[in-house]
Here is the input.
Amino acid sequence: MKKIIPIIVPMFFAAMALVCSCEKPDVPAITELDKDHILTVADIYKMQADSGDYYQFTDDYMLFGSITMDDSHDNIYKEAYLQDSTGGINIYKLSKAGMVKVGDRIRMNLKGSYIVNYSGKMELSFVDVEDATLQVILQEPNVPITPEEVTMAQVIENPAYYDCRLVKLNNVQFAASDTSMTYAVEHGSATQNRNMTSCDGNTLVARNSDYADFAGQPLPKGSGSVVGIMTRYITNSNTGTKTTYQIIIRSTDEVNMENERCD
Here is the structure.
């Protein structure tokens, strides 16, 4: 016998549906879900590990979570990051820019999407889905997740746990050799790495797009904290495996480095 759970559509959305079509409940309405078809981010990671390759969803599996980064500042484009109580994941590629916003609690129908391990970063790829707008249903807006406060050492020691999670790195600064630079190349067409160090001697990079609306802003010269999404990029060569730890900045409003430098 199937186990089913009800989905309660808040009165707020019923009222909004009468005002505009921008935020409305499931169409057609869904009143119950098969509990065995509701997944967590941890479930998705395990499915990819077990498959050993790309995994495509052919059934109506559902994922509930909160958007932790959107493309409103153009540091990413037509993609987003989602997090639940078990982990974070990249949503790649949404059908249009501005489709979701930070703080949106959503339900995603995963049918047709792929689980992809992109050089160490876990992605839910919607590239081959005809209309991703039908896959993402807003449950509740403006309920942002508080970033987890960590040190750079903690992130490096446990990269699998922090993959695609929203964090606040404390006691960090941009490398002295980079402080004369900007976040990225204004009016450029690539993505730039800016080196960041911690007061305990660890390093990672801030990965910034030339299309970001803050690309031409100068890097801060002091130390402090930064909020962003942690990712990693793994490369394999004849000399072995190399892992580059990366943070993707949501906004320079979340880069607070007004203290004296650690060095």
Residues 8-13+23-140 form a domain with the OB fold (Dihydrolipoamide Acetyltransferase, E2P) fold (CATH 2.40.50.200). The first helix runs from residue 11 to 19.
